[in-house]
Amino acid sequence: MTRPDYIARGGDLVMAPPLELTKATMYSFLVGADYQALVDVCDKQLNAVTASVGVRYQPLLPFVAIVCADIAKSYSTTPPDSLKGWMAERDFGIWIPVVSNSGKIGWYLPYVFVDNVAAMVTGREVYGFFKQTATLAMPDSPGAAGDFSVDALVIEKYSPESTAQTIRLMTLTSTESLTAPDGELTSVRELALGVWKDVKRLFYDTVADVKVLPVSVWDLIKNMLEELVTGDVPMVFLKQFRDATDPTKACYQAVIEAPAHLQKFERGWFTHPHDVTITPADSHPIVKECGLAGPAIRSELGFWCQMQFVMQPGKVIAEHT
Q1: Residue 272 DSSP label
Q2: Are 105 and 224 in contact (CB under 8 A)?
Q3: Considering the domain boundaries, does residue 247 fall inside one?
Q4: Integer Cα distance of 230 and 46 in angstroms
Q5: Inter-residue contact 53 to 318 (CB < 8 Å)
Q6: Tens digits of per-residue pLDDT, 3-43?
Q7: 188 with 263: CB under 8 angstroms?
């Protein structure tokens, strides 16, 4: 199928990939989740599109990561967009680790919040990141005290009289500093192996229903390590646009995979436990959709890292037009 040329217009903030993101500080807080709820998310948002091509995604393990990232510099590497400049952005989201029936591990993000509109439109229109704008707060640097928070536009209770309002949707707090006093890691492999050991203990060894994965857990570990060596972290997206004539339909719908290529890992370490509070909202049913235990939960396992990476162009797995 021949695609038309993209028509650039004044005021267009959609940047052409690849996108380079430098001086990025990323925190990941892992929390337990109901495995069947995550299966339902994959089935409704990914597998409903990819069933026609025989691709199926399912959760890797019964947990999600609450990821909070501060990116000092983001810009396109493709002319002419590479000549336009750069911007800073923050991205907070819920990340679900998924595995396809080919044994490939990836991450699916059902909720993503960003603090500037350019990051939102580029993420949505190019890749399919389900981004929405919000006010995001986090500590100034690893080891500094402070909370993580998301203030977003939501509708708390659906009714014809309800007004959308900006509220404090999510908070992560700890009474301790973010970083442990006894060192840092400068190897992404060391950090990944340390995280995997605790993930396996907390979310795999004691849970029976994840034994239905399409490949063995050891194959999954092998795949994960190979991806770390090559520097590619696969991301999975549902990209869709509502139809203008029939609002129950999508005029375009696709599942996209795109690798985030790690260019440089600088340092990282583990965090102390954090308490997570999520405000219930009908427009953002995070607790129910992601299978969380409730609106107040605790992350016993987390880590932070500083790095730079490139968001590479994507690949269409399945699409409907």
Answers
A1: P
A2: yes
A3: yes
A4: 26
A5: yes
A6: 899 999 999 999 999 999 999 999 999 999 999 999 999 99
A7: no
CATH code, 70: 2.40.400.10
Q: Which domain does 281 fall in, by range?
A: 19-320
pLDDT digits (tens, 9 = 90+) for 60-103: 888 999 999 999 999 999 999 999 999 999 999 999 999 998 88
Geometric angle at alpha carbon 188, from 187 and 189, rounded to 5°:
90
Report the alpha-carbon distance of residue 99 to residue 74 in Å, rounded: 28
Question: pLDDT tens digits for 265-283?
Answer: 888 888 888 999 999 999 9
Query: Looking at per-residue confidence, does 243 or 178 come out higher?
Result: 243
Overall domain count for the chain: 1
d(CA 199, CA 193): 10
CA separation for the pair 68, 93 (Å, rounded) = 7
Name the average pLDDT for the chain.
88
Is the separation of the CB atoms in 250 and 242 below 8 Å? yes
Q: Which two tokens stand for residue 305?
A: 């890292």
**Beta strand pairing status for 131-137 and 105-114?**
parallel
pLDDT score for 67: 96
* 8 within a domain of the structure (yes/no): no
Q: How far apart are CA 69 and CA 76, in angstroms?
A: 19
Residues contacting residue 196 through CB under 8 Å, at least 6 positions apart: 221, 224
In a domain, 13, yes or no: no
Assess if residue 11 is contained within a domain: no
Amino acid code (one letter) for 58: Q
How many helices (H) does the chain have, and how many strands (E)? 6, 14
